[in-house]
């Protein structure tokens, strides 16, 4: 749903502001740069636990406030009164789940374009990280989050590993593709985590949702029977 939403918004923006048409034109260089910059902003602010942010935050991610407001379907500008005699513009995504989706898009794109895993500590490994290790590290990060703020992010990230979603975002993602073998390794790792003691009901449920994102329904069917 979120992938389709992003594609539709890109088409709407190009039609409205650039008179673009046709399937090949909805990821123009300008639109692509805007979405990827929004993804960087979304991830950095998600890591900080921020739902609203200032113009300086946009600038740090290479976003121009006026240009961002043009992309109104994905990004909305709001005002908030500050103490004193002035108002500062503050910004937010139209829904937290959209911020989480764009954050996952940024992490996915960064790994497949440069090999950098934004979820791992800097210089944690000198050798290139495998795709399976990348996804498993995301599972670990989500499980270690004290408040579960990466749960939905993880589901989005795993969903982006599927070829069906990558095809829809062709032209936005420069490097795509996780083999079925990689996904099976991720599924196996998630099932191992589900068998560990001390896992809360909320985290167990989220891991089941993760398996569903990867089109593995074996445990869900088992629990239903």
From TrEMBL:
Q: Which GO terms describe its molecular function?
A: ATP binding
Taken from the record, one Pfam family name reads NLRC4_HD2
Task: State the GO CC annotations.
Answer: cytoplasm
According to the entry, every stretch annotated as the NACHT LRR and PYD domain falls at 95-221
Q: Which InterPro entries match?
A: NLR (IPR051261), NLRP_HD2 (IPR041267), NOD1/2_WH (IPR041075)
Q: Where does the NOD1/2 winged helix domain lie?
A: 34-93
Q: What is its main location?
A: cytoplasm
Q: Keywords of this protein's UniProt record, alphabetized? A: ATP-binding, Cytoplasm, Leucine-rich repeat, Nucleotide-binding, Repeat
**Compartments reported by the entry:** Cytoplasm
Instruction: Kindly give the PANTHER family that the UniProt entry links to this protein.
Output: NACHT, LRR AND CARD DOMAINS-CONTAINING (PTHR24106)
What's this protein's name? Uncharacterized protein
Write the lineage as a comma-separated list.
Answer: Eukaryota, Metazoa, Chordata, Craniata, Vertebrata
